[in-house]
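thought: fold this chain, then report.
action: predict
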Amino acid sequence: MALPSDYHMHTPLCRHAKGEPVEYAARALELGLPEIGFSDHSPVEHDDQDDWRMLASELTQYVSKVEYARESHPALPIRLGLEVDFIPGHEPWIKEMASRHDWDYFIGSVHYISGKWDFDNPKYIAEWENRSVDEIWSEYFERLTCAADSGLFQIIGHPDLPKKFGHRPTCDNTGLYLNFFAACESTDTCIELNTAGLRRDCAEIYPSLEFLKLAKSSNVQITFGSDAHSPSEVGMNLEDATTLARKAGYEQCCRFNRLEKDVVKF
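observation:
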């Protein structure tokens, strides 16, 4: 089975990944991937937000690393992206970043709810015990819907991320999901199938099959990503992700070049 493009990869600039982009590219060629894209954690407006992203002063260095990987592996299409946290009020910052370089795509992600709580950070997992799981899911999807509705992103990342540590909703969230999908459809925003969930406590691709079926019925398009934080994770479980996508009724995925979308079969 041919593998799809892997659009979610990190670099050491995020402070929790290993290996340079040239090493990720070499691994992608070994696997026969048709295309890859780097989408490291972007800076936010204030560098003291957390310790798991590049600093604003490192953005040009990041672009240079990706450019060097392109030059070193001319046979492999390599796209330049960012994984950008959607934090309400930071939209002008995101627009300013978008104007700095010739990006191919932005992945919009939500890691923060309730102020500065990065709910998927293992360092703060104990905070889950002080919260209502259903309220966390609700707040997360309200923010994720705002991210999709903003039109700032080509892709929404790991869309059911709150399940990472095994916390799943106890109530029916179909309405929340449908509102999110409506925002994606109105702004022509994709969602990604992110295989990192298979390496987490939830032991499931982001998103679940049920979620993905709803996305398909809502005409939401998809991309694929391994969320690689080391060269060994490049392309990991993408075959499982394509199988999942087909079960949900998908036969096509999207690629991006300078923000222009191309729809291809997988």
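thought: worth noting. Helices lie at 21-31, 59-72, 91-98, 133-150, 174-187, 209-217, 238-247.
final: tokens above.
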